Amino acid sequence: MSDITFTLDNQFTATFVADEEATNYPRQVMCAYSFVQPKTTTMPKLIASSESVAKQIGLNEEQVNSAEFLQLFSGNSLLANMKPFAMCYGGHQFGHWAGQLGDGRAINLAEIVTQNNGHKTLQLKGAGPTPYSRTADGFAVLRSSVREFLCSEAMFHLGIATTRALSLSLTGDKVVRDMFYDGHAKAEQGAVVCRVSSSFIRFGSFQLPASRQDLSLLTQLVDYVIGRDFAHLGAPSPEVYLAWFNEVCDRTCKLVVDWMRVGFVHGVMNTDNMSIIGETIDYGPYGWIDNFDLNWTPNTTDANGKRYRFGDQGEIAQWNLFQLANAIFPLINDAEPLQKALNKFSQNYQQQWQNMMAAKLGIELSAKTSAKLPTEPSTELTTALASEAEIKLFVDLEDILMSVETDMTIFYRRLADLPDDKSLWLSHLNVCFYDENEISVTYQDTLSSWLERYSKLRDSGNKSRGEISKKMNATNPKYVLRNYLAQQAIELAEQEDYSLLHQLQQVLTKPYDEQPEFERFAEKRPAWAKHKAGCSMLSCSS
Ligand code: AMP
Ligand code: MG
Asked: What is the DSSP-derived secondary structure letter of residue 115?
């Protein structure tokens, strides 16, 4: 028997008062959620699934390949006791308060109990309009769904906190999109991704009731999140609220440092896209760094201000946390400890960034301290501090990587095998450069003297070169979801060829391993992809 059953535990809908209006039309909602039915699809087809997510929620291969699975996770049928709902939240978009946003095209099917008494929410993205769809249609196109599916799974296998993706299905229906908002609308294939996380609650979930002076809903939400996902902090009280805010700061800090480590640019760090449990959420116009560039953003909607550029993600995270602090202020009524937590975020960020750079470079930081950070962090935090010379080494490297187009991912992998013979250094690193004409004599001198300083620091620890490079390769992925590869997978998928999608999914399950059969996926971005739509330019249209 392959019947699909889950142990349901719909705590969110059991806790909060539902929107009374049952008809599905765009409106302002003064509650935490609205019940809503997914739209029936014409001819659903499963094109990808994640074995490990399936396993996590107790489904075997036979069940994943069943007709029942397809109907359920494309939105065509429900299991007993599933009462789907869309959540209400607000947010700051590109620095401006946008009021109510909400799940405009995400529908939660149910909360389920997992092994070891964990909990997960199963959510369909692209399953049709909700009361929060505003002027949009509630659907998602194949290209953005492929990107969400592949990237969330890649992120998980990189060891970075993220929502997961169980399945990717075509709906068989067409969705009209104007990809660059330039009057070239076309009908694209519709798709649904089933996302899985312990919580889809966002910073904006708290901001909305706070903006409406609904202290009762705000308090209920904070208490709910603490009880559900931060239970180790204890029963809610002003002290626990503060401890909770500190932990949200810590988790967010760790998340962004991880993004910086692997070269991920989220692209739309609006407060409605910030997970309260510190996961990467809402994969839209994100991108992966090919040539190292702190000023790069893939999001054409953000091309002017580049608010969400690669190098500013830490500061933006702090800005978003500041908005969260403002929202929860009425529960604490004391600005000072909140301000302190925000200041601590900067310190933590710097310290964790330094530790991350040291790990990338295989350096053991010189100044060791076992001092715990002011609040008891739940996430792993740093215990080492960098010296001035080490910090200078890190910062100088950024300048060097920015000065000529250098592939970030390849650079760090090559650095792990840097030959001892200095005369071979440049030829060893040559493969990282995008344009040989940029490699001037001055540049070569700067790079060589940096490598000289670097290798001295690297060798001053007591680990062997073998151990060091092993550690570096466990920090620096060999395979990331390069923008052009995702785009190639999409273009083939649009022609009903899912082979590259499946290959990428497979290779990205072991991003730190050498996989000689997949060497092509570790190569530099080809020249044709540099300015191609979808490869380096993406918009919010999805
Ligand atoms: P994003 O910045 O993509 O996370 O989206 C911002 C807001 O727009 C969220 O409330 C989304 O649910 C909503 N949204 C985005 N795309 C659609 C769509 N196609 N239909 C309905 N709502 C959407
Ligand atoms: Mg969003």
From this structure: G
**Whether 49 and 114 share a structural domain:** yes
- Of 323, 341, 363, the position where a domain reaches its end is 363
Task: Give a three-class secondary structure readout of 306-334.
Answer: CCCCHHHHHHHHHHHHHHHHHHHHHHHCC
Residue having the nearest C-alpha atom to atom 12 of ligand 1: 104
The answer to whether 272 is a known catalytic residue is: yes
Structural domain containing residue 156: 7-204
Cβ–ligand 1 distance for 373 under 6 Å, the answer no
Mean pLDDT, contiguous 10-residue spans, the chain (542 residues): 88 98 97 98 97 97 98 97 97 98 98 93 98 97 98 98 98 93 93 98 99 98 98 97 98 98 98 98 97 96 95 98 98 97 97 97 79 46 78 98 98 98 98 97 98 97 95 98 98 98 98 98 96 87 86
CA dihedral angle for residue 486, residue 487, residue 493, residue 494, rounded to 10 degrees: 150
Last residue in a domain, options 148, 183, 204? 204
91 Cβ closer than 6 Å to some ligand 1 atom = no
Ligand 1 within 6 A of 128 CB? no
